[in-house]
Amino acid sequence: MKNLKKIITTAVLLVSVIIYAQEVVPETYINPLDIDYTYMVYNSSKNISYRSGADPAVIEFRGEYYMFVTRSFGYWHSTDLINWEFIKPKQWFFEGSNAPTAFNYKDSLVYFAGDPAGYGSILYTDDPKKGEWTPTASITKNLQDSELFIDDDGKTYLYWGSSNKHPLRVKMLNKDDRFLETGVEKELFNLVEEEHGWERFGENNYHPTLKEGYMEGASMTKHNGKYYLQYAAPGTQFNVYADGAYIGETPLGPFTYMKNNPMSFKPGGFANGAGHGITVKQTNGQYWHFATMALASNAHWERRLSMFPTYFDDEGLMYSNTSYGDYPLFGPNHPTKAGQHSGWMLLSYKGKTTVSSSQIQVKKSTSAYDDYDITEMPLEKNSEGEIISKLLTDESPKSFWVAASNDDEQWVKIQMLSPGKIYAFQLNFHDQESGIYTRTEGLRHRFTLEVSEDGKNWETVVDRSRSYKDAPNAYITLNQPVRGKYVRYNNVEVPGNNLALSEIRVFGKGIGKKPEKVKGFKVSREEDRRDASFTWNPVKGAQGYNIRWGIAPDKLYHSWLIYDVNEHFMRNLDRDTRYYFSIEAFNENGISDKTEVQEVK
């Protein structure tokens, strides 16, 4: 009996040691958000089929969250801001919704507007989870990019505008009488491109002929008695699509330009853009800014969604943290670092990649002329006769590879430059002549993922071979990290006629050294004070660099992540603002110390 007790005690201790030795992997998410984006009908007459998600309106209602997205023929529901389930409503606008607005009025009713025809019918419900909505009669017209805001006193305001000429406007409505207009209407403000570099039209805020950006996407946040009216510029298809804010003492203004604008800006890295969004307050008090990212590969209106933590500083300035914003980020329920970079780095960058077959491989980017630079890659094979792809690990979402078919004979193999501990994967599927339009049920992405240390012995770490999940930007974290240098994607079935991918991204922790601190960092503001040039000495072993800047040494709210190069040029500064700059290097092993902050007048 005593021996039996000893055996049991020893077994319990061993189990305890094993459990204790296991790493606690934190909850994370990544941008673009991993949801089942809807196929669009914008270019269906041209047989261009693609998914898109844009112009999010996110609200908290009775402790849960609802997300409304342009032309999605429904909306999403979540309890944690990470996992979203689509709700198909019983009554909705015939063409979906366009640049929607939603408002939670005192946890009693949700009001919604976004008729693509521009008419002012406002829907309402007390049970959005059930999907039953009641419409009001149309009360106004020309309501593109509208924002409905009901103040604590019940007074109701409608902001709207989408133009490269006209300003944002506001009108007052009577919530208790079908939202009829009260007669109070006011012009508010417009873009001032000659002062605000980030408002200039074009990729990287440059276009050779068009100078006026588009002002759109009004959104109102009330915080500590002040009114933050947010707006988007300069165009949804560009990497510099951003949200700025004006601050007022009343919902009607007057409004003052916020000196640290834009408040949401992500011009660099893999996924670009952070404009036309909405700021929502989590039940724990943390703010989040949901925004639109510019994929713009099949068409300029091909977009995705993002979520960034948002704050108000000691001056009452509103800002979002988008640094490393397309890397794994701590989940919204993290006690101290919600939305911040998890520390998992990109292991797969420039990994040697081979594929099962190749119908076409296209290198693509947005040009300065608001069109595309396109290169069809020649077919290349390695010494073993395998087809090479240089596009699936290049950190470009616009470039893509298309397999010869859509079956279980298709695969992708990546040999990473260095081994590491793998924590997560992001699979970015591409739509290539999919032939799918509007909201389509029953779509699914089925595949497996394998990891190997030597390229010969493989371990299956993800099995979605029988999954019913539709995940065009699938983000998958492992329960426990695995060590590996090789990753293999094995296809089973995806939507469309052919398997197509734009990027496979592998995240984790490298086993080497992080880069040294950057040296020789020089910043020069140009004759046009909206522009600045940067140079620095290359850092050995660095994948890339992250430039940070802001209006004070302790307010470096902006960042621009770039790969490979040791120079940069930006056109997004405010002409009359003094800025402070710093830079850091990064690789698969971590991030270097930041350089000393430089003041540049």
UniProtKB/TrEMBL annotation:
GO terms for molecular function: hydrolase activity, hydrolyzing O-glycosyl compounds. This is Endo-1,4-beta-xylanase. Residues 514-601 form the Fibronectin type-III domain. Belongs to the glycosyl hydrolase 43 family. One of its GO terms (biological process) is carbohydrate metabolic process. Residues 1-21 form the signal peptide. It comes from the Bacteria. Residues 357-509 form the F5/8 type C domain. The record marks 145 as: Important for catalytic activity, responsible for pKa modulation of the active site Glu and correct orientation of both the proton donor and substrate. Gene3D superfamilies: Galactose-binding domain-like, Glycosyl hydrolase domain, family 43, Immunoglobulins.
